[in-house]
C-alpha cells in the first residue's frame, strides 16, 4: 500500500478519490460505521454474490453493494453516478486493508494498547475513537476478538480511514499471524479401541512397509497441492483414517508427519486439528 502521508481532504468523496489514486480500495460508510446494504437487485445475493460476503461474487452492480467486496481503486467508479447518493449520505470512508496489502490490528481500549506495546513490534499507528489502529505491511485472514479488545482487519473486511497516522509501517510479524491460532487443540488419539475382526484375523495394516508407504503418499499429496489446500488436507486425512483409523496402527509420529506437511503448505495448527477431528467425525471414529 503506497503511503498517502500528505492527504488533505474535506469530505468523504474527496478522501476516497485521493486514496484510490494510491491503490487503496475504498467504499463509503453510513452513520454507525456500517457499509451501504445491497440494492434491490442484489438483495440476498440474487445477483450472484456469495452469502455473508465471504467472497466477492461476479456482480457488476453500479452501486456500492456487498460491503467490503464493493471497495474499489477505480476513481471512475468512486465518482460515478451510481455512488453519488451514497457519498451524499456517507458519514465516513472505509477501505479494504487486505486489498491494499496491509493488516490492521484494531486495539479497542487502553488495556489492548498496553498489551500491544509490550507484545508487538512498533509500526504505523492511527488514533481511533476508543483506541488505536496498528497497521502492518502484509495481508492475512481477518478475525474478531482474537484477544480482549483486539480485532484483526485485513482480507474480506473493512476498516475506517482515520488518517495516515504516524510512524513507519513494518512487515506483518508472526506474533500477529499467530493471534488467529487460539491454543490449538491437541490432535485426537488415533489409536481407536475396536474389537478384533471376526475370526481373530491380524490387522494387515501393521505391516511397516504398507503403513509407511501410505503415510508417504499422503504427505506427497498435501505437498503437491497447487490449490484448495484446505480441502486437500481434509480429504487426505479422511483417506488415511478410512484405511488405518480403525485398526490402531497409526501413532502420534504418523499424525505429526501429516500435520507438518500441512503446516508447510500454510495451514495453521488449529486448521490441522479441526480437519483431523472432522475426518474422525465423518468416519464415526
Written account of the structure:
Helix content is 33%, strand content 13%. The strands form 2 sheets. Strands 5-6-4-8-7 form a 5-stranded antiparallel beta sheet. Strand 7 (143-147) and strand 8 (150-153) form a beta hairpin. The longest helix has 16 residues, at 208-223. With 285 residues, it is α+β, with helices and mostly antiparallel strands. The protein has helices at residues 12-20, 75-78, 81-89, 110-119, 174-177, 208-223, 229-244, 252-264, 269-282; strands spanning 26-30, 34-35, 92-95, 102-107, 124-127, 132-137, 143-147, 150-153, 159-160. The model is unreliable at 1-9 and 189-202 (pLDDT under 50).
Alpha-beta content class: alpha+beta
- Report helical residue fraction: 25-40%
Q: SSE order in H/E notation? A: HEEHHEEHEEEEEHHHHH
End-to-end Cα distance, whole Å, is 48 Å
Strands side by side in the biggest sheet: 5-6-4-8-7
Amino acid at each position: 500500500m503506497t503511503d498517502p502521508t500528505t492527504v488533505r481532504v474535506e469530505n468523504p468523496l474527496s478522501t476516497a478519490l485521493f486514496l484510490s489514486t494510491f491503490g487503496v480500495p475504498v467504499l463509503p460508510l453510513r452513520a454507525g460505521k456500517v457499509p451501504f446494504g445491497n440494492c434491490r437487485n442484489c438483495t440476498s445475493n440474487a445477483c450472484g454474490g456469495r452469502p455473508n460476503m465471504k467472497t466477492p461474487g461476479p456482480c457488476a452492480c453500479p452501486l456500492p453493494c456487498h460491503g467490503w467486496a464493493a471497495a474499489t481503486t477505480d476513481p471512475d467508479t468512486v465518482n460515478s453516478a451510481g455512488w453519488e447518493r451514497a457519498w451524499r449520505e456517507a458519514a465516513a470512508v472505509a477501505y479494504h486493508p487486505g486489498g491494499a496489502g496491509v493488516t490492521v490490528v484494531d486495539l479497542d481500549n487502553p488495556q489492548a494498547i498496553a498489551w500491544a506495546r509490550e507484545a508487538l513490534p512498533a509500526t504505523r499507528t492511527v488514533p481511533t475513537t476508543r483506541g488505536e489502529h496498528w497497521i502492518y505491511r502484509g495481508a492475512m485472514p481477518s478475525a474478531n476478538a482474537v484477544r480482549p479488545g483486539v480485532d484483526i482487519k485485513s482480507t474480506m473486511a473493512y476498516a475506517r480511514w482515520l488518517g495516515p497516522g504516524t510512524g513507519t509501517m513494518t512487515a506483518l510479524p508472526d506474533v500477529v499471524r499467530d493471534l488467529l491460532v487460539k491454543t490449538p487443540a491437541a490432535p485426537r488419539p488415533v489409536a481407536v479401541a475396536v474389537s478384533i475382526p471376526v475370526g481373530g484375523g491380524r490387522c494387515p495394516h501393521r505391516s511397516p512397509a504398507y503403513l509407511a508407504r501410505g503415510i508417504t503418499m499422503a504427505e506427497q499429496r498435501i505437498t503437491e497441492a497447487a490449490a484448495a489446500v484446505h480441502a486437500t488436507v481434509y480429504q487426505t486425512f479422511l483417506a488415511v483414517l478410512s484405511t488405518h483409523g480403525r485398526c490402531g496402527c497409526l501413532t502420534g509420529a504418523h499424525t505429526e508427519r501429516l500435520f507438518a506437511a500441512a503446516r508447510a503448505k500454510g495451514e495453521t495448527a488449529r486448521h490441522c486439528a479441526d480437519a483431523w477431528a472432522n475426518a474422525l467425525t465423518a468416519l464415526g471414529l
